[in-house]
Design a protein that fits this description.
Length: about 160
């Protein structure tokens, strides 16, 4: 999928910085019922295989995507867009940039887990060519829910 929408004021930035960590933790709490704690983002700073793409609109954090690329495998760990910034194409821009960076790092496929009732996210992933390839029982808490594993081959 190519990004067709022009999003006024949008800037994407590759790379996670120490000063981003509290911003991401706050955004995570606004977007998820089972958010990653700040310490989890902090730990990502020391992982050379991790990479993040942050979206800013008029200088304010609007969304983020992060994951790990190790040899031919790449996983998306988190993707979120702040509630007031949704349905403008920001997640599509983030995912497109993430897949491009995964390819540049030599990944042949990208995998992720998604709550089985998270239809907005599943729509997004399908638009980018992801398909379901398995399930993880009770993978999520608060509320407990199965994860659907989705994968896309990069070409
Ligand atoms: C899922 C999420 C990241 C989408 O962010 P977004 O910036 O609103 O998404 P976009 O505007 O880029 O939408 C891209 C495509 O995703 C799909 N999509 C996004 N929101 C949707 C919704 N509410 N219902 C149905 N499809 C949706 C559509 O296919 C959309 O394309 P379209 O606008 O041309 O129809 C956002 O809703 C979010 O942060 N949710 C909470 C956190 C989350 O669930 N993260 C994913 C964890 S696996």
């Amino acid at each position: 999928m190519t990004i067709q929408k022009e999003i006024p004021g949008l800037e994407l930035r590759l790379g996670l910085r120490p000063e981003d960590v509290p911003l991401l933790a706050a955004a995570e709490s606004a977007c998820f019922s089972d958010p990653w704690p700040q310490a989890a983002f902090q730990a990502e700073l020391d992982n050379p295989y991790c990479f993040y793409l942050l979206a800013f609109v008029d200088g304010e954090l609007a969304g983020y995507i992060g994951g790990v690329a190790l040899y031919e495998n790449c996983d998306v760990n988190n993707l979120a867009v702040l509630p007031q910034m949704r349905r403008r194409g920001i997640a599509a821009a983030l995912l497109s940039g993430f897949l491009e960076e995964a390819r540049r790092r030599g990944a042949g496929q990208v995998m992720l887990e998604v709550r089985e009732h998270n239809l907005p996210a599943m729509h997004l992933y399908r638009r980018f060519g992801f398909s379901a390839c398995g399930k993880r029982k009770n993978y999520y808490q608060n509320p407990a829910e199965d994860a659907v594993i989705m994968v896309v081959e990069l070409c």
